[in-house]
Amino acid sequence: MYDFVEHRTHNGRKNRMLNVIDEFTRECLAIRVSRKLKAHDVIDVLSDLFSLRGVPGHIRSDNEPEFIARSVRDWIAAVGSETAYIAPGSPWENGDCESFNAKLRDEVLNGEVFYTLEEASVVIEH
């Protein structure tokens, strides 16, 4: 399962984090931090993970534009996986990912002031 979290550096500039969580083990498999994350960034992260860990039977997400983009859907189908979208307005259907995102906020984001994107990336991805 995967989802986005947004945060800001000290100067108010937005960061986005793509978090990928293993639905079975609840392990965070990847966090990508950037100012902007688009469909090709989602494919890049998933490609790396699928190469390392194998292709899952499905990948769960909400209906954000980056996840429902034709390029992402086509790529997921081409590698032999399926998309499992949660119903709009139903974050509890992706509860483990939402729980991880809340803990990330509580344990890291709310306790740190990031001055640069690079600093945020190093701390958050660690």
TrEMBL record:
<protein>
    <submittedName>
        <fullName>Integrase core domain-containing protein</fullName>
    </submittedName>
</protein>
<dbReference type="InterPro" id="IPR012337">
    <property type="entry name" value="RNaseH-like_sf"/>
</dbReference>
<dbReference type="GO" id="GO:0015074">
    <property type="term" value="P:DNA integration"/>
</dbReference>
<dbReference type="InterPro" id="IPR001584">
    <property type="entry name" value="Integrase_cat-core"/>
</dbReference>
<feature type="domain" description="Integrase catalytic">
    <location>
        <begin position="1"/>
        <end position="126"/>
    </location>
</feature>
<dbReference type="Pfam" id="PF00665">
    <property type="entry name" value="rve"/>
</dbReference>
<dbReference type="GO" id="GO:0003676">
    <property type="term" value="F:nucleic acid binding"/>
</dbReference>
<dbReference type="InterPro" id="IPR036397">
    <property type="entry name" value="RNaseH_sf"/>
</dbReference>
